[in-house]
What does this fold into?
Amino acid sequence: MAKTIVRCRGVTKEYVSGPLRVQALAGVDFALEEGAFATLAGPSGSGKSTLLNLIGGLDRPTGGTLEVDGVDTAKLSSAELARLRRERIGFVFQAYNLIPVLTAAENAEYVLLLQGRPEAERRARVRDVLQSVGLSGLEHRRPRELSGGQQQRVAIARAIAAHPALVLADEPTANLDSKTAASLMELMERLNRELRVTFLFSTHDPALIKRAHRVLLLHDGEVTHDGPPHEVTLS
Amino acid sequence: MSERLAVARLLLRLAWRSLWRNRRRTEITLSSIALGLSLALFFGSLAQGTYEKAVTDATRLLAGQLTVETPRYNESPGPALALSGAPALRDRLQAMPGVVRVRPLVSAQAVASSGAGSLGVVLIGVDPRIERGSSPLESKLVAGKFLDPSEPRGLLIGAGLAKRLRVAPGKKVVLTATDVQGNVSSELFRVSGIFRLGADELDTYAAQGQLPLVRKLLGLREDQVGQLGLFLAPDGRDVQRKAQELAGPALAVRTWQETMPGLAAWIAIDSRSNDVTRALLIGLVMFTIMNTLLMSVLERGHEFAVLLALGTPPRQLKAQVLLEVVLLAVLGCALGALLGSLAAWWGQVRGIDLSGAFPEGVTVGGMALDPIIHCKLSAFSVAKVTGLVFAATILLGLGPMRRAGRVDVVTSLRTQR
It folds into this structure.
């Protein structure tokens, strides 16, 4: 039986701004197994990014329990959350968010350095992940010298370099043209298939939703559907 | 250990490259630090050179760095308060470690007269054998020559006095004074040389003659002088106390600050005023730097949020920002110290001619100052001012550093670049 990487039980998130209260998540329940290739779908404001932030340990739920790789994130201090992100979670952002002053290889190496991995291991992993994402030969280029698609590949390389339990990707193809987006999805699928990397990504794009193995459809902060993509009706 | 070193190298790489991300801004900030520091160093060394020159000239002309005299002499300088046994005391003081030269001196109020008129002057009697080579008058002669022991009636007078009395070198001047007995006494002198120091009070109202004749004029014995002036070696330590022990309780050993309080007060006031000016200058520069540092952190909020999201410990992010400030401070201070030292060195070697700016001459604390000022730079002052600017820059970096560690990750990530 596959290991559970994410488990949400009645997760709520409420934002309070003065007299205004906004219920971003209204009791989310689901579990994600190791090796999953799942997407969070739903309209803008449905709570996709909020849920990804909570799973990623960037924010804390208002209610319910949320476990990542067996750890209840609500019980962790800020430093422990940072450690959880560093050790067990990889992030891919919509705007790539590479460190502009570091080269592709240095960006991919960044989290490994934070983890205190030995130099030989770091070099081998960086070489391997850049090869995996098809960027061999571009190791010494800085982000501004790479195309959008290449930058997002570096971001994926950075996210998987440390062999995290989970890779969270928030609209990873939103800034790419459809051809590059499709190629990036192929890459993520291949990494999931070959390296058993667990992916949870959010997207608006119906074409990409169809490529996921599992779709969690969010609406007004609730999971309204959880199943394979062919069962989902997208409006 | 090697992993910690790897993180340190990463931080250094991030800080260094981030510093040059906005090249123009970094160059402007570095220039601000360098300019502020170099100006502070240069003007500080110029002021120090001015003070040292003023003190050196004043002590060489009037007394010494230390002065041995009777206790009430400074209240009413004159022959009545002269000290006795001067030759023996002079020999013993001269033998003291840290004493370079001991200078016997007699001074009194007198009236200088010629065929053209009379004028009140301060008459100083000196030993030309001791004065030669060190008296500031020697290099300021505009006519005639310095005092010569073979011409005992020789007299040096200022250009203003020479003009008033309408005398030239070789001409006679009669000096009249009240002697130690209270009688009016006169002696004939012959003008050896005419000096121009640039200060009206000295050029018009001072005259210098030879010790034996001035003593005779004032009715003093051969073993009597008004003061013994001591010139000290740069490393002379505790000489005042030792000289006091040697001179005994009947005599006072005073510092130049006590014998020339006007000059000491001017230096103290001017020095404080310079400190305030330099503090304001550095403060203005620091304000610019603080602005730049804060802007550099505020505009990278999104980037810091990404680094924190990836699991960067906040203290590491703070260390990166602090390292950027340290690099900026090191570069700016190194450049500023180099430029300031070079400018001060140039001013020390070549001297800065202020005669154009002060055609009437420069007078400080009643002393004429050479209009060509030589800067005085010491390793200590360079280290002190550079250290202050460095520390101030680092202090200014603490605010932006704390801010970097307090970035709200979720809010900042929502703001796409």
